Amino acid sequence: MSESQYQRFRELPALMPGKMDVFFADPRKIVVNPDYNVRDMKAADTIAHIEWLAEEIGAYGFDPLTPLTVKRHGDDVVLVRGHCRLTACLKLIEKGVELQKI
Question: What's the predicted TM-score (pTM) here?
Answer without folding.
Answer: 0.74
